[in-house]
Design brief:
By secondary structure, the chain is an all-alpha fold. The protein contains nine helices and no strands.
């Protein structure tokens, strides 16, 4: 059964109605702040998208489009030294690898010493030198063969180094025969790479390499009496 409101309850209604607008106003205020933040975040997101599109466009522009711009120095290939600066060192490295092969013929080879020889002297800069020679070959139209020779040589020497390491740990699977096989592959690859060098440059490189080896064998030779080409080669090494 419904009850009839009392006069006191009727008098309380206006006060309740006065409170309601304040509650509604307070409830709306955070929503206004959220909307403002949403609009601000929206503007930042649109700005980031615009910047990303610009960068993407720059990255997709062909390299030649940057000629003469601030990116030009990063696009150009590093200038190489003259070819005859690399050839003698490659020849000396080849001779050094042959020296390692001869040490394997002795009783009880020192495999740790063999590993050190692969990382010292002319061999220490082999990777840089043979790639430079291959680049010159590429400029003359023989790049595919030359770079294949580079990969073949480096792969053989890496596998040789692994065999030396295993042998130093008394691994029976690392035989001297397998080491010699890797050495032959590396030497043949270097022979093929040097075959791309012009004959006059190659002959000069062989002469310098031979003189360098002879100067090392002659302990009595004073530094001031060394050939200028040998002095230049020593500075490179």
């Amino acid at each position: 059964m419904a009850t009839t409101p009392t006069p006191a309850q009727f008098r309380a209604v206006p006060s309740v109605l006065r409170v309601v607008p304040n509650i509604i106003s307070q409830a709306k205020q955070p929503l206004t702040v959220k909307c403002a933040l949403s609009r601000q975040n929206g503007r930042q997101s649109r700005r980031l998208v615009s910047v990303s599109l610009i960068l993407l466009h720059c990255l997709r522009v062909p390299k030649h489009a940057f000629a003469g711009s601030i990116f030009d120095k990063y696009v150009k290939r590093k200038k190489l030294d003259p070819l005859d600066a690399y050839v003698p060192v490659v020849i000396l490295t080849q001779l050094q690898i042959k020296d390692i092969e001869r040490t394997l013929e002795a009783d009880g080879p020192q495999y740790d010493t063999c590993r050190s020889l692969l990382r010292s002297g002319p061999a220490a800069s082999l990777r840089v030198n043979i790639r430079a020679v291959a680049q010159y070959a590429a400029d003359n139209g023989n790049g595919k063969t030359a770079f294949n020779n580079v990969d073949q040589c480096l792969r053989a020497l890496e596998e040789l180094d692994s065999l030396f390491l295993r042998a130093s740990r008394n691994d029976p699977g690392a035989s001297v025969e397998s080491m010699k096989a890797k050495i032959i592959v590396a030497i043949d690859a270097l022979d093929s790479l040097l075959g791309t060098v012009p004959s006059d440059v190659l002959d000069k490189g062989k002469a310098i390499a031979d003189s360098y080896r002879n100067s090392k064998d002659d302990a009595d030779l004073e530094p001031e009496n060394l050939d200028p080409e040998i002095k230049k080669l020593e500075s490179i090494l």
